[in-house]
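# step 3/5: fold
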Amino acid sequence: MQQLSGLDNSFLAMENPSMYGHVSSLAIFEPSAKITIDSVKQLVSERIHLVPPFRRRLVEVPLGIDHPYWIEDPDFDLDFHIRHIAVPSPGDEYQLAELSARITARHLDRSRPLWEMYIIEGLEGGYVAQLTKIHHACIDGVSGAEILGVLLDVDPTPKPTPPPEVAWQSETEPNAWEMLARGTFGAMSRPRVGLRLLRKTLSNGPALARNFSVSVAPSRPSQLLSRPDEPTPPAPFSGLITAHRRFAFGSLPMSDVKFVKNVLGGTVNDVVMSMCAGALRRWLIENKALPATPIHAMVPVSVRTPEQAGTFGNRVSAMVAALPTNESDPVVRFQKMHEEMKIAKDQHGAIPADMLQDFAQFTPPSVLGAASRVIARTKIMDRVNPPFNVIISNVPGPQFPLYSSGAKLKGVYPLSAITDGVGLNMTLMSYNGNLDFGLLADWEMVPDVWNMINALADELAELKKAAEAIAGT
């Protein structure tokens, strides 16, 4: 048995009828007769020992007094998790996106390991897609990319997978009394975590105070965007979400992003954030909803150390960045975004990486679940401005082609999660010379989510044109 961390459990506690805690990815493979549901089942069966979360299921602690545990599922059934489906003719990208959004919007069965995989056929041109859902309680973005590397090959002809050194063994599910005893012991250790958290809070008081004070300070003159100067403005994708989702995806060349980065200065992520800011500005103008002040983005940050590679679970923190959506010039917007990201990183780096984990560990699961239900029932997110409007996440991936059963991976597009108050998630993964964007939104809040994909391409084109003028090319 292995206990979930407080942060892992928070992704379970957030769930309600309109919110889920799993993340998904849509992998599209070039036409090949070799990739079938049977070939995928065979591949997963041979490599499942390299992906421990695939055979673990939850055991809850009675009364929610402590975080739940993982056990090796004694009733594991691979056929339940890998499924076959097709899109109707003509099988275009819009039909694929709608099917993916509908599948993603269904909760995972907590009585089984928290993942599902769908092999999707019927696509235009003979392409085959693979939609994978896995709960965020099991993985974060980096460990999700590690799973992708395990289940795919770097060569069209896969090499045999060595068997596990120790044969897998299932575990007998403990009864309620055993779990209650474990939970009671765990609850007794919570004050110790609280004391550790208090010590860290006091020792890092100045850094925390800077982050808090600037987030609530009134507007003040500044040459740079900072932790933000104004409160989070309202946006059409802020508020109470529904149970339904829309999804759009697309790829942009990494070479253009790197060219812009090299000419204008900064990082690839600065370019990505600037593209997102510009795309959101275009969409907000189209919808007559552009606020006078910058909207705010939550940016997940991996705090996984090299020693924690392959350990799965969550090693993630977050920072909030102001997006210069009120700036019309794309180059000036990039410069402001670059400076804002430097400030955000500096202030985030001043706080210990494990403080978020300690906050989550200290809070009893029953309290987290109750808070989520109260927020949903009272619709409080429809009456207050959230601390940020959108989630933007950049997940690094391999810069070489990958294969499954000899079929080349064309692209892999993330479908992350949205929450009450934040009805838009813009996540991308770099792969084989491209940035693969996946935009997930509430069905009602962003009915034209494909327009944002087009706006991202337009923003990159404008930045590239400006960079070419500066470089004299």
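# step 4/5: annotate
The CA atoms of residues 292 and 400 lie 42 Å apart.
# step 5/5: archive (pending)
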